[in-house]
Request: fold
Amino acid sequence: MSLQELYREVILDHYRNPRHRGHLPSPDVHAEGENPSCGDEFSLDLDVDGQTVAAIATQGQGCSISQASGSMMAEAVVGKSLDEIHELTSRFKRMMSIEEGESPVDEERPGSVLGDLEALQGVRRFPVRIKCADLPWTTLEDAIRRVEQGSEVLP
Ligand code: ZN
Reply:
């Protein structure tokens, strides 16, 4: 199986069996996003315990890239601190912005840190779809920004 086929399998698996789907009973924050260029919708609920994302649940509809990215994102951020999530988000965005044929320097190789998310790097060959992959992360950033501003979390 080529790497490209493997990536495709990982994406389709997350698309067909999205992780952390549903709603939280009383989320600390809820955020919604959309990608009009493709018609993707994505929203999420977060429970934040101190500085840690204790639980996440996602909803959405759209193309396989956007929904698979949301499933991978949810799996990657649950149990992580807000600082770790900022780092993960910037790694993901860096991976998606690397030009084809350009190799990242070794320490920036996303690999083990990003796990399944690495499968999305094939999307870079289709620039219009990068927005699909970014949507769940943009939505997450919106949610976290509101947590950090303290406008959503009740004592
Ligand atoms: Zn899309």
Q: What stands out?
A: Residues 3-149 form a domain with the Sufe protein. Chain: A fold (CATH 3.90.1010.10). The radius of gyration is 15 Å. The mean pLDDT is 89. Strands lie at 29-35, 40-49, 52-61.
